[in-house]
């Protein structure tokens, strides 16, 4: 790039220069986004920062570029097992993506990066960080393990970033994050970024930030202006058909469908497949390979429909997602902002449709309060009857005994519940593994919120919203996610939490 080009590049005016400016320009970044304009100079001047800007508005480069610029100036001498900068992210996929972005922005600048995250072998991670790296991008659980085992030394880390900061500071992560922050260099510079920052979480930032600059491009919770949002009223039993009818429209070219639970995501995926659609699914009970494969397929366009839990709600940048469909509303109102923010990124158009059962009305109101706008209802199916359930295809639990009366037109009991065919009796705790508290030790990758330690859905006391507090054996018909068996209109979040008094920082 010649001198004139460099002057034309707005990033030069922000203090980015040399190879970094070249690579940034080559990546297509010529005009800084508002968050970049405001956050980059402050960080270059050494200030801590709390950055709030809408989804898809360029927060990654806003924290990556100033650190890159300072690190490049330091030269390549690094101490073994150390990292100069540490970026923490709530999910493995987001960590992978941040590393990719850093590599693109730093192309040709001899910057070393390493990833530390769960679900994959430690060996290669430990090996990679052995000589010391410039950037370590990590999820907190695995990083804690490697720090404890002295495979990673954080005392030389002078830059710390929490991407999706409000998520990193909520109950599921805060303890690990505090410990990690304490292990870094005392004179570190810290940056916190997110599109949402509830007031009670912002208080927690005080313990991490020193005299921070607060950059707020739009008030927290603001959704990207490009996203056209709407609501479709449909009872839970109608949602499958409503979704399939919707997806028949080819204009929905790249769709992410969010479900509240892992079990729910699996069920939506199966139903879509039965209705003739091809869909990939991503949630916390899948292997890391399967998770990354599903996301990669969606990214490269070979997968048109991705069904996901909130594990894919934050930070994931797949340009060209045309639609986000919320099959149900998330437990945490902020998640709505992040979910729909997978579309309408970087100035592109996007459409977000939320299917709302009457029992979800209070959640909808909470969402509307956070985004400070009322969502228009574009369709109302409530007056229509529930669709007749098709029999399951051959081979899929179609093994009722031949003499079972239930198959002779007596599908339902008088009270409307399905007849018990004898196979469903006393199925204790058939709930999917990871939906239970303390189900397994985990790496701290917490995309999903249906675990202990989660922050309460706004306005409810925290003890009142745990579906998972009961011991497994207490639920004789545990084949459905807790809460889903309740009659319509009944109040959720009533069960007192019993086991989850402590944040289950490592469950996911
Ligand atoms: N200055 C720029 N010029 C052109 N494209 C940019 C610029 N800054 C960022 N982008 C692109 O915009 C997209 C969104 O950026 P990014 O993922 O950093 O958003 P974000 O604010 O972190 O969103 P989220 O809140 O969802 O994490 C990316 O594809 C990125 O490459
Ligand atoms: Mg981001």
UniProtKB/TrEMBL annotation:
<dbReference type="InterPro" id="IPR027417">
    <property type="entry name" value="P-loop_NTPase"/>
</dbReference>
<feature type="compositionally biased region" description="Basic and acidic residues">
    <location>
        <begin position="405"/>
        <end position="424"/>
    </location>
</feature>
<feature type="region of interest" description="Disordered">
    <location>
        <begin position="381"/>
        <end position="508"/>
    </location>
</feature>
<keyword id="KW-0347">Helicase</keyword>
<feature type="domain" description="Helicase ATP-binding">
    <location>
        <begin position="40"/>
        <end position="215"/>
    </location>
</feature>
<keyword id="KW-0067">ATP-binding</keyword>
<feature type="compositionally biased region" description="Basic residues">
    <location>
        <begin position="493"/>
        <end position="508"/>
    </location>
</feature>
<keyword id="KW-0547">Nucleotide-binding</keyword>
<protein>
    <submittedName>
        <fullName>DEAD/DEAH box helicase</fullName>
    </submittedName>
</protein>
<dbReference type="InterPro" id="IPR014014">
    <property type="entry name" value="RNA_helicase_DEAD_Q_motif"/>
</dbReference>
<dbReference type="GO" id="GO:0004386">
    <property type="term" value="F:helicase activity"/>
</dbReference>
<keyword id="KW-0378">Hydrolase</keyword>
<dbReference type="InterPro" id="IPR000629">
    <property type="entry name" value="RNA-helicase_DEAD-box_CS"/>
</dbReference>
<feature type="domain" description="DEAD-box RNA helicase Q">
    <location>
        <begin position="9"/>
        <end position="37"/>
    </location>
</feature>
<dbReference type="InterPro" id="IPR011545">
    <property type="entry name" value="DEAD/DEAH_box_helicase_dom"/>
</dbReference>
<dbReference type="InterPro" id="IPR014001">
    <property type="entry name" value="Helicase_ATP-bd"/>
</dbReference>
<comment type="similarity">
    <text>Belongs to the DEAD box helicase family.</text>
</comment>
<feature type="domain" description="Helicase C-terminal">
    <location>
        <begin position="247"/>
        <end position="386"/>
    </location>
</feature>
<dbReference type="InterPro" id="IPR044742">
    <property type="entry name" value="DEAD/DEAH_RhlB"/>
</dbReference>
<dbReference type="Pfam" id="PF00271">
    <property type="entry name" value="Helicase_C"/>
</dbReference>
<feature type="compositionally biased region" description="Basic and acidic residues">
    <location>
        <begin position="432"/>
        <end position="491"/>
    </location>
</feature>
<dbReference type="InterPro" id="IPR050079">
    <property type="entry name" value="DEAD_box_RNA_helicase"/>
</dbReference>
<dbReference type="InterPro" id="IPR001650">
    <property type="entry name" value="Helicase_C-like"/>
</dbReference>
<dbReference type="Pfam" id="PF00270">
    <property type="entry name" value="DEAD"/>
</dbReference>
<feature type="short sequence motif" description="Q motif">
    <location>
        <begin position="9"/>
        <end position="37"/>
    </location>
</feature>
């Amino acid at each position: 790039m010649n001198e004139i080009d460099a002057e034309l590049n707005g990033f030069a005016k922000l203090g980015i220069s040399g190879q970094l400016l070249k690579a940034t320009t080559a990546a297509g970044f010529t005009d800084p986004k508002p968050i970049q304009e405001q956050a980059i100079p402050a960080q270059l001047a050494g200030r801590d920062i709390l950055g709030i800007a809408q989804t898809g508005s360029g927060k990654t480069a806003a924290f990556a570029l100033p650190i890159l610029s300072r690190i490049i100036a330091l030269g390549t001498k690094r101490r073994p097992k150390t990292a100069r900068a540490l970026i923490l992210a709530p999910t493995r996929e987001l960590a992978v993506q941040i590393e990719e972005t850093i590599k693109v922005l730093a192309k040709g600048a001899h910057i070393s990066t390493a990833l530390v995250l769960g679900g994959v072998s430690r060996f290669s991670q430990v090996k990679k960080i052995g000589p010391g790296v410039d950037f370590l991008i990590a999820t907190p659980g695995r990083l804690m393990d490697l720090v404890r085992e002295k495979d990673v030394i954080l005392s030389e880390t002078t830059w710390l970033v929490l991407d999706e900061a409000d998520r990193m500071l909520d109950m599921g992560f805060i303890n690990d994050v505090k410990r990690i922050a304490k292990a870094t260099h005392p004179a570190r510079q810290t940056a916190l970024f997110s599109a949402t920052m509830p007031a009670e979480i912002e208080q927690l930032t005080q313990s991490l930030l020193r005299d921070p600059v607060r950059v707020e491009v739009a008030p927290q919770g603001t959704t990207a202006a490009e996203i056209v949002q709407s609501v479709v009223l449909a009872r839970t039993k109608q949602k499958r058909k409503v979704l399939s009818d919707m997806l028949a429209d080819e204009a929905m070219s790249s769709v992410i469908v969010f479900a509240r639970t892992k079990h729910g995501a699996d069920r939506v995926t199966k139903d879509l497949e039965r209705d003739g659609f091809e869909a990939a699914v991503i949630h916390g009970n899948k292997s890391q390979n399967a998770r990354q494969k599903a996301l990669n397929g969606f990214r490269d366009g070979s997968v048109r429909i991705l069904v996901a839990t909130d594990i894919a709600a934050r930070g994931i940048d797949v340009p060209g997602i045309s639609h986000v469909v919320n099959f149900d509303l998330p437990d945490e109102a902020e998640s709505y902002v992040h979910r729909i923010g997978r579309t309408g990124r970087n100035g592109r158009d996007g459409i977000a449709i939320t299917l709302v059962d009457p029992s979800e009305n209070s959640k909808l109101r909470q969402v509307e309060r956070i985004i400070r706008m009322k969502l228009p209802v574009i369709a109302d199916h409530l007056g229509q009857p529930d669709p007749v359930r098709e029999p399951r295809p051959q081979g899929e639990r179609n093994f009722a005994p031949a003499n079972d009366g239930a198959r002779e037109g007596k599908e339902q009991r008088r009270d409307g519940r399905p007849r018990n065919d004898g196979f469903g009796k006393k199925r204790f705790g058939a709930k999917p593994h990871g939906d239970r508290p303390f189900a397994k030790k985990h790496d701290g990758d917490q995309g999903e919120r249906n675990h202990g330690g989660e922050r309460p859905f706004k306005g409810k006391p925290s003890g009142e919203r745990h579906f998972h507090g009961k011991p497994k054996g207490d639920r004789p018909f545990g084949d459905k996610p807790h809460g889903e068996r309740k009659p319509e209109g009944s109040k959720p979040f009533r069960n007192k939490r019993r086991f989850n008094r402590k944040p289950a920082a490592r469950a996911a």
